[in-house]
Design brief:
Blueprint: H1 3-13, E1 15-19, H2 27-38, E2 43-47, H3 53-63, E3 68-72, H4 77-85, E4 90-92, H5 98-105, E5 111-112, E6 114-115, H6 118-126, E7 131-134, H7 141-151, E8 156-159, H8 168-172, E9 177-182, H9 189-193, H10 195-206
Parallel strand pairs: 1-2, 1-9, 2-3, 3-4, 4-5, 6-7, 7-8, 8-9
Helix pairs in contact: 2-3
């Protein structure tokens, strides 16, 4: 999958649920993923913050092969290898570095690097990353996205970090936002039931 295809799939999804897969019971993440897919989710990120997270991602992929799965919190070459072994479709990092770039270039799946400042966006852009993760969103995210749209019109962002349901309309209005990611919709059954409304709010803000 190339970057253009990835950006389109993420844009089509609009909202990307982010799952934790705890070592105590990684099967919980699989059960939540089942419910998310039932609700219409097409892209899910599984945070690689525990040794058993790749197992959870691999099981979700086995059960839902059409869903696009991201390995999140990919920090180094070891995490890249774990993402590939788990059959992730792409990787997401909270930041970016020369070491991570080198590992991503050697990988078979694309990376969405994390950025926050103009210097970071520009550096990632120069290296060919036109889909980037804007993180954290709560840190003056609105102001930065508006500025980035004017300066880097070809760069799109997967925005994460501190978002809640009420954030959707505010952030979706930015045309350089490909999608919003977060954990708010997996915190309760009621929040998950509200996912359809969140998607409606996203698209309404773009119309």
């Amino acid at each position: 999958m190339n970057t253009d295809e990835l950006r389109q799939r993420i844009s089509d999804a609009a909202i990307v649920p982010i799952l934790m897969a705890d070592d105590d019971d990684p099967a919980v993440a699989v059960i939540i993923a089942d419910a998310l897919v039932e609700a219409g989710t097409t892209v899910i990120e599984v945070l690689f913050r525990s040794p058993r997270a790749p197992d959870a991602l691999a099981e979700i992929k086995r059960r839902h092969p059409s869903v696009l799965l991201a390995a999140g919190t990919v920090l180094d070459a070891e995490a890249v290898a774990r993402a590939e072994a788990a059959k992730a479709d792409f990787m997401v990092s909270p930041g970016f570095s020369p070491v991570l770039h080198a590992a991503a270039q050697a990988a078979s799946i694309p990376l969405v690097p994390g950025v926050n400042t103009a210097s970071e966006v520009q550096h990632a852009r120069e290296l060919g990353y036109l889909l980037q993760k804007s993180y954290p969103a709560w840190d003056h995210g609105h102001e930065r996205l508006s500025e980035f749209a004017a300066i880097y019109p070809e760069v799109s962002f997967l925005v994460t970090g501190g978002l809640v349901s009420a954030s959707v309309s505010d952030f979706a209005r930015h045309r350089n936002v490909a999608a919003l990611g977060g954990t708010w919709m997996v915190k309760s059954a009621a929040a998950m039931a509200g996912l359809a409304g969140d998607l409606e709010a996203f698209h309404a803000a773009r119309s």
